Amino acid sequence: MRRGVIVIVGRGFRGRASIYYRQIHTRPSPRPCPDVASQFPVTQTRHDAVRVFRGSEERRTPESQSVPDDEWEMRVGRGIYVLTSTLPNFFDSGLVVNASHDSDSLEDIPIYSKMVELSYTPPAALPSPLPQTLRINGLTMYQGSASMLKSTFTALYSDCSVTLERMSVIPGGFRERKVKIDLGLQGTARLTNTKAEWNVLSTYSFSPTSGLISRHEIERIYPEPHSALIDSVRATILRLMGIKGLDNPNPPIGGLHTTPCTLDSHAGKPEDIQ
Predict the structure, then answer these.
(1) Dihedral over alpha carbons 243, 244, 247, 252 (to 10 degrees)
(2) 211 in Cβ contact with 110 (< 8 Å)
(3) The whole model's pTM is what?
(4) What count of other Cβ atoms lies within 10 Å of the Cβ of residue 227?
(5) pLDDT string in tens for the chain (274-residue length)
C-alpha cells in the first residue's frame, strides 16, 4: 500500500480558497502519477481558481483516440483540481467545464467529455413519464441542467452557498480513476425564512481513453429535497425534454433526440462515451 496526500480546496475566509491536506492510502499504480501540485499552482481568488497551468507540449488529441499515459494523468489531475476549486462557487460562477491556460488564452482546456453522462435515482419514484433513474447525456444537456438547477434553487432560496465537505480519489486498474465529492448546500427559504441544508454525494468517473470526466453519478441527496424543489426540478427536466404536458411525452426539442428515460444532446450509445 502507498500513502499519498490529497489536496482539498475549499471556500475560506472572504471567499478565498483554503487548502487542506489529507493523507490517503492507495494501491500502487502501473505508472507513477506526476506531481499535480507543481503543474497546477494554488490560486487565492475565485477569479483565478480556473486558470490552470498546462505544459506547452500538451497534445490536442480527439476524445476517440487514446492519449499517452502522462497526458492522461495530467488531465485527470486537472479535472480534480478544477472540480474542487470551482464547485464551492457554483452559485456565483455556475458550472465550470473548462480550465483556462491564462488570461490571454484563446482556447479553453476541457475537463468534461462531450458525451458526459449524468445520472440520479431519487429515493421516491417520479411520476410518469419520468423514469426511476434520470439520465442526461451530452455536455450541452449537462450544462443546461446545471444552469436550470441553479436558477430553480436561487428562486426558492436566498443566501445559497456550497461547501466542500470531503473529497477522496478512488484508484482502480490501469487508467481507471474516480473521485467522490461530498458537498454541503445551504440556503434560506424565501417563503418561510428558515434555514435549509443538504448533503450531496457524487462520484465522477474519468474516461480511460481521454482522461476527461465521462460520468457524473449523484449517489445521495440528504435529506430528501422539499416537494416544492422536487416539483420545480421536475418541471425543469420536462422543459429540457420538450414536454409541455403529460399527454405529449416525447416531442423533439431543438432537433435533439429525446426519450422519456434519457436526455441526449448527442446521438450515441453509452459505450461511445470517451
Answers:
(1) -40
(2) no
(3) 0.66
(4) 10
(5) 544 445 444 444 444 444 443 444 444 444 444 444 444 443 333 444 444 444 434 445 667 688 999 999 999 999 999 999 999 999 999 999 998 755 455 467 999 999 999 998 888 777 777 778 888 999 999 999 899 889 988 998 999 999 999 999 998 889 999 999 999 999 999 999 999 999 999 999 999 999 999 999 999 999 876 656 666 666 666 666 565 554 344 333 333 333 334 445 444 444 444 4
Domain range holding 209?
2-272
What's at 123, amino acid-wise? Answer: P
CATH of the domain at 218: 3.10.450.50
Residue with cell 425564512: 193
Q: DSSP label at 258?
A: B
What are the cell numbers at 183? 458537498
The answer to whether residues 88 and 136 touch, using CB atoms and an 8 Å cutoff, is: no
d(CA 273, CA 114): 8
Number of folded domains that form the chain: 1
Is the separation of the CB atoms in 8 and 166 below 8 Å?
A: yes
Residue showing cell 404536458: 245
